Amino acid sequence: MSNSTSFDYTHPDLQIFTLGNTKKLSANAGSNAAICSGSSTVLSASVTNGTSPFSYSWSPSTGLSSASVYNPTATPPSTTKYVVTVTDDKGCVATEGVGVTVKPLPVVTVKSTGLVTACNNDYEATLTSSEGSSYLWSTSATTRSIAVTTEDDYSVTVTDANGCVNTSGTISTLK
């Protein structure tokens, strides 16, 4: 035996409506990133709840391939905090920020020392790069210094502890 009673009642002034999704719109701008100067990273906004379609607005727009897509490519000139504003079809708004840290490229200098001229016009010079984590010379050598004995053009690519890479200018050796 049931103790509940059910009945229907309609009042002429009563309007019945159904609430849609009542969960709050939320934006996620993704993870912070670190890049080397001149490099780029892809930002990626995602949305939780809300009603599609969604519109995206990133600011500042400096260094972005587009400020109105969910996944712009960012090539900022310096460390930048980007904020994405997401608006859903109902006009609800959510914002979230993400940082892009720009690390400087290593400064690459080359010093020439030990030039020795022999009677038969042979010579040897040592080219030494500025400090780095790894080196790649145009000769394929991977040491900080190389001995050169021929007239040629040389350069070195240096990678620093942050993984940033830079290449020296051309060093010409002449007899």
Description:
- The protein is rod-shaped, with a radius of gyration of 31 Å.
- The protein has strands spanning 26-28, 33-36, 41-42, 46-48, 55-59, 73-74, 80-87, 93-103, 110-117, 123-129, 134-137, 145-148, 152-154, 156-159, 165-167, 171-173.
- The strands form 6 sheets. Strands 2-8-7-5 form a 4-stranded mixed sheet, with no helix packed on it. A 3-stranded antiparallel sheet has the order 9-10-12, with no helix packed on it.
- The chain contains no helices and 16 strands.
- It has 175 residues and is mostly beta strands.
- The relative contact order is 0.16.
- Residues 1-7 have low confidence and may be disordered.
- Strand 9 (110-117) and strand 10 (123-129) form a beta hairpin.
Shape: rod-shaped
Q: Structural class, from helix and strand content?
A: mainly beta
Strand order of the largest sheet: 2-8-7-5
How many distinct helices? 0
State the separation between the terminal residues, measured CA to CA: 112 Å
What portion of residues is helical? under 10%
Strand content: 35-45%
Report the mean per-residue pLDDT as an integer.
87
Low-confidence stretches: 1-7
C-alpha Rg (nearest Å): 31 Å
Number of strands: 16
Q: Output the helix-strand order.
A: EEEEEEEEEEEEEEEE
Largest sheet: 4 strands, mixed
